[in-house]
Amino acid sequence: MKFYSTNNKTLRVPFEDAVFNSMPVDKGLYLPEHIPQLDPDFIANIENYSLQDIAFRVASALLEDEIPAEALRQLSDAAINFDAPVVPLDAETAVLELFHGPSLAFKDFGARFMSRIMGYYLRNGQQQLDVLVATSGDTGGAVALGFLGVPGTRVTILFPKGKVSPIQELQLVTNGQNIRAIEIDGTFDDCQVLVKQAFADQELNARLRLTSANSINIARLIPQTFYYFHAYAQVKRAGGKDIAFSVPSGNFGNIGAGLLAWKMGLPVKAFIAATNENDTVPRFLETGVYETRPSVQTYANAMDVGAPSNWVRIMDLFEGDLKSLREMVYARRFTDSETLEGMNELADRYNYVACPHTAIAWLAARQYRSENPGNYQTVFLSTAHPCKFPDVFPEALAAKIGTPDQVAGLAAREGRATKMAADFGAFKSFLLA
Q1: Lower CB count within 10 Å: N or C terminus of the chain?
Q2: pTM to 2 decimals?
Q3: What is the DSSP string of 282-316?
């Protein structure tokens, strides 16, 4: 399988090149040259397969012969060694919990798979691999744990000052070894721009071997398809219904992976893009005009993205056809006050404590169902454990949140981050030092 650039479909590279180069020279994003269709018998009997079985089958279809089957099975099993359960809340609504990995966020799927892919391709004696990642909250922690101690790699994480939760920040700054953190005086969009400028800088690319761990990297996108198929398998196992997925959306990699899974043959009624007040995509679907804006800070900080990078992939999957896109993707935005109301209502109605991102997904799922009644299941994605956002919760809800083993003791560890303005010259000097 070759991978093409969304800016130039004649520019096609092997998977290894797409993984290590992250972004094509024309600044597009990589997608597979064709979207493979999974065996209908596999889909029809998917309830008989484990998450690990599904991961291997989907990865094999997308990569074809890029990695030998035995090696691919080993690395996918090692990466996806935790569950993603669908938890029913009522007869029509369920939550897909994606926070059971080491960093307590859905980003573990992509970060762990990608780090093992890169480890597979890295050869002894090769130049050190510099992994750059901008994070609005959860990506950095997942990447840090995914790459911690991986030989031949060095990870540099950029995060916006004062705009990640205390636990998220601890997950970024307390790793040491081959993980470095930079606190940028700006927004997530500023962090993302600095990473993109680094990839476009000739001197940096001549002296360093750069790659990205953000969702612009195709190796991050592929494993995110796994849990959509796994969710469908669980719903089928429980009696089976059509599914509408409600996805908390910031940089739009998560829902982009879901749409890729749908294109591969996953039966889905609709995708619901649930956003906070950073509503670039909802406005586009309403008006047909794509207009980015500077991001604003909200309670759902991992979704504070004003210029979602992955939207170009989604438009490419629909070949730019806005009518077809609107038929499959429904988008809604919610304010901080609505988010808090959703968190409280989930707790009151279902005794379910959800992070703000998850609450937004539930609000959007509920709104979609009210406008589209029928016999189907709405599955909303829970992308992070609520313990990562202690300052957001009202006191009564905060008391119900346990502390998982993954974060116990983080506060006692020494943290270190380099403070920096949102200035590319300073960032470039840091990388070259």
Answers
A1: C
A2: 0.89
A3: HHHHHHS----------SSGGG--SS-TTHHHHHH
Residue with tokens 């990870």: 155
Distances (CA, A) of 339 to 16, 212, 284, 333: 41, 31, 22, 10
Whole-angstrom Cα distance, residue 191 to residue 384? 21
CA-CA distance, 243 to 266, in Å (whole number)?
10
d(CA 77, CA 184): 35
In the prediction, which pLDDT does 402 show? 81
d(CA 255, CA 225): 9
Sign of the CA dihedral running 129, 191, 159, 98: negative
- pLDDT on residue 125: 66
Chain position carrying tokens 């990447």 = 143
Count, residues in the chain? 433
Look up residue 177 and give its two tokens: 């070894």
Question: Is 196 tagged catalytic?
Answer: no
The residue written with tokens 């998982």 in the block is 404
Total Cβ atoms within 10 A of residue 19? 24
- Give the pair of three-digit tokens for residue 267: 């039966």
The rounded distance, in Å, linking the Cα atoms of 407 and 138 is: 13
Residue 149's pLDDT is 86
Q: In b/e form, how buried is each residue of 29-56, taking b as 16+ CB within 10 angstroms?
A: bbbbeeebebeeebbeebeebebbbbbb
Token pair of 386, please? 């609520």
Dihedral angle, C-alpha 118, 212, 1, 69, nearest 10 °:
20
Question: What pLDDT shows up at residue 124?
Answer: 65
Contact 386, 354 (CB under 8 A): yes
| Catalytic-labelled residue, pool 2, 9, 27, 107 | 107
CA–CA separation, 157 and 417 (whole Å): 9
Give whole-number Cα distances, 390 to 295, 387, 396, in Å: 22, 6, 12
Q: Give the 3-state secondary structure of 311-350.
A: HHHHHHHCCCCHHHHHHHEEEEECCHHHHHHHHHHHHHHH
Domain-wise residue ranges, the chain = 69-102+221-398
Low-confidence residues in the chain, pLDDT < 70: 124-125
- Those residues whose C-beta lies under 8 Å from the C-beta of residue 51, and which sit 6 or more positions away, are 80, 83, 84, 226, 227, 230
